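Open question from group meeting: does this chain pack into something compact, or does most of it stay loose? Before anyone orders reagents, we agreed to write out a predicted structure and look at it together. Recording both the input and the output here so the notebook holds the full record.
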Amino acid sequence: MLNHLTIRHYAIIDELELSLREGLTALTGETGAGKSILLGALGLVLGDRADSDSVKQGHDHAEIIAEFDISKLDEVQSWLVENELNADAECILRRRVSADGRSRAFINGTPVNLQRIRELAEMLIDIHGQHEHQSIMKPFVQRQLLDDYAGHKPLLEAVSDVYVKYKLVQEQLNHLSQSSQDRNSRIDLLRFQTQELDNLALQENEYQQLNAQHGKLANADKLISATQQALTSLHEHDEFNIQSELSRIHSQLLDAAEHDERLQAVTDVLQEALVNIEEAISELRHVSDSIELDPAQLEQVEQRMQAILDIARKHHVEPEQLSELHQKLQQELDDIDHADERLEQLQAEHDELLKQYHTAAGKLSASRRKFAKQLSKQITDAMQTLGMKGGMFEIEVSASENHEVSVYGVDRIQFNVSANAGHSAKALSRVASGGELARISLAIQMITAGQSRIPTLVFDEVDSGVGGGIAEIVGQHLRALGSTNQVMCITHLPQVASQAHQHYRVHKQTQNGQTRTDVTALDDKQRIEEIARMLSGVEITQKSLENAEEMIKRAQAC
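Structure tokens returned:
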């Protein structure tokens, strides 16, 4: 639901804020007061194109901010999460247009492109009339409206489940159905590659082990020299070695400790050091004895490592990845070798799934045709009450182009309409009159309100060409629609405005040579006066005030 709309420096609007509620909101005002400008500002924040004329003269930019309550809109919250745009209970759209015509768009403070903001706007608000945001014109929305009205969720899920399986098998089938020449060439290459890896006979972790072994063999001279020097210094030198000298010092201090107990701690540390040196000498002897100078073995290890590296480079992988590559190539070779058998199996699966798909899609199509007739009649009946006597609405369910299958079935759904008796029904998108289109949209919304996925509906010129009793019926329908959706209606008719739960007056004023548009929320007294003005024109009479009050009371009593 649209909670708040802020407009700054747009066209002839200096600054205004609208706080909106649930139910039906009427926007009224004299012709030229700026109602269309207000709608233009709303369209701008929803992703319409911007130009320098959008900015009020004397200012460097215009800004429009729309704040929506999305706490009950799971689809919107999921979209925001998927697009990493901070899905809280409130969603804020902001559009800033510079005087040079450049603009920036934001969702919850994050800069986005216009396509992104349009995608989100289509889930939040729908403008009915001669306006690009009208989703009812889009084929997928028409299909969605019919399916929602008919409660087709189980049938759609059945079609979707089979379709996903069918497409997966079809992709596998297409992959295996490549030309025999390509397949044979691939088989020859795979056999050569797997044979080469078979001959290499690489063992698990072999390259890592060879690398470690190579390090020892290549540095055997250094290892022998280092261990022997250490042994000589620690123990084997006849004239002086660390073990003997440390033992002598330990013995002297041990005797001295009998006269000063403070030396006892020192002797304990030296004793531990002697034990550690003894262990180090033992380990050094073990290592020294195990080191061998073996040039032949070193050459053998280097040759094996080079063979592994050569094949790894050929396949553009690391040596450690060769085993995994070997398994992958072998599996692909096995799959191709058994391709004919697998093709036969996949073709059978494909045919069976296609049969299941057409069975499920057939049930969906039959149900769509049934409910299309029902919904068409109800919308046609509603049109008769909205000033389109003899008008006809028809939902056409036909086979999709080229009989293509899709996750939504095999049907093409098209809304056709004739606004006047004696005229053949044409596609809704070809209806010329904005007023008629708005009233047809209202008729559709009236019947499908319970299934509407868009919370906020704006009707522009819905009362064009109607008056009297029909205008009152239009107002009653809009008020009823306000019980399930937030509805905003720009109207010239008191019969419509009197039905509103909330009423704004759009007016233009000139001050210091500058013209500006303001919007005022009307209280009960001001509302009576505004509807009286709409009834009687410039001069508001007592009779018109009484009539206005009576119209409001009658609307509230319904």
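Observations to bring back to the group:
Residues 183-337 form one domain.
The mean pLDDT is 85.
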